[in-house]
Amino acid sequence: MIEFTTPKPIQQIQTVVETVAINMMRPVSREMDENEHAIPWDFINFMHTAISSMGGTNMAPEEKKDEKPDAGADKKKRPPLGYQRIGAMVEMLSWGDAGMYLCIPGGMLGSAAVAASGTPEQKKRFLSRFMGDKPVFDAMAMTEPQAGSDTSAIRATAILDKDTNEWVLNGEKIFVTAGQKALEESDGFCVVWASIDPEAGRAGMRSFVVEAGTPGCKVTKQEHKLGIRVSDTVSIHFQDCRLPYENILGSPTVEKTTKGFKGAMATFDATRPIIAAQAVGIARATVELVKEVLEEQGIEIRYGLPRQKMTSIERDVIDMEVMVRAAWLLTIKALWMADNKIHNPKEASMSKVYAGDIVVRVTQKAVELLGPLGYSRELLLEKWFRDAKITDLYEGTGQINRLVVARNMLGYRGSQLR
Length: 418
Fold this sequence. Notes:
The protein is an alpha+beta fold. It contains 13 helices and eight strands.
């Protein structure tokens, strides 16, 4: 069952990451935002060393081998903490700076896709590189100019060349987070969604690992964004990009069902709660800053009073705190289910819907409460307001995730409820 006390291994990680957030992220947060696309190498190199010592950030639950039961006493085995550990790290790193968090090496969407759909050999081959001497980045490319939330509209193709036994990838992908670092700044990779049989619709959809330096793969554009400006978001063009046969994730056989597509979509069951954790981190930072400023101005939040006896500011702040806590509890539940290999698409989408919604509401309300100070650049609050919206957009917009929740609750297929 879910426990409401934070396990000691996660508490230890939170302590370390909080130190990083306070001393390495907050002091340069404004500078990184002002200098869009500048790569924070000092932070990246430090995090690579720190994360490697903590066991990495690969999006896969812990697997203990050859674990012997305790002699004598009937002790409970500690439940797996893989996704919960990552969620706690992401929440704290996003409390420091949401854009810089997206610059940490390893453990992003690409590795999540490999962890969700890859074979044991593929996991060893691609995920082990994150534990090397140099930082390695990964990304996932799904969105196309004509295919955003509607993944059935994806036109990128990967056709098998039977003479060479290679996949030939053609198409264009846009809004790829960390794509430039994955393909040009490290020995990384990008997981690309494409169809192996365009006439089969979603049944023909598969994921492919495109490694850095692969001929025919080119980063063509870097986006200028509202928020998370330090994180690169790029467009990638694939022209006769040849991939080894074994770089396909999942079965190469096209079946009448959408099993292959569903296997690829399982990636989001693990990563959507991670995005929710990012939203919670931004929202928590916001509430804490508002309370600090109010305290400096002699305004106390009087907890325990009936709402009708509170001031408007007190009610607003308490409502903000309640929303942040509720979002974190939803996130923890989805992460716990992922760790225990419990089917969680509904809970994963619920956590992202709610967290992505409340972080926008909380940051907006904070700007309102602090007035000109909140709107100015004197504080990081206006930056957090800009950073917040992305958590409601990427890895499935709030509208799409609401559909996922509704379909799971009502028992409808995608074709029955749009």
